[in-house]
Amino acid sequence: MIGKYIKQANFEDTGFSYTLSLISGKHKMVILYCLMEYEPVRFNELRRYIGNISDKTLSANLKELEADRLIIRREYPQIPPKVEYGLSERGRSLMEVLDQLCVWGEKNRAQ
Description:
By secondary structure, this protein is of the alpha+beta class. It is built from six helices and three strands.
């Protein structure tokens, strides 16, 4: 009887699917976590924090997060150029969810 409901269901129509579409990928959640802990953060600081990531990949991830309105890019008109990244209000609202992942990880990781 329960099987008939899943036939009508579509994962892509769920809020879970939408959220995953915003944060999926190898580095996006790490970027968001870094901004949650240390904002504002500059590009090179993010690259050092993440470790093994190319400039191209980091730049693409930042552009996607900015397009999804989760982060804000602040550019300062000076020489040399200065760019900082921080969470938008929308991004801050997602931090409650990411924070719970951290709490779960602290409680459940091997001692």
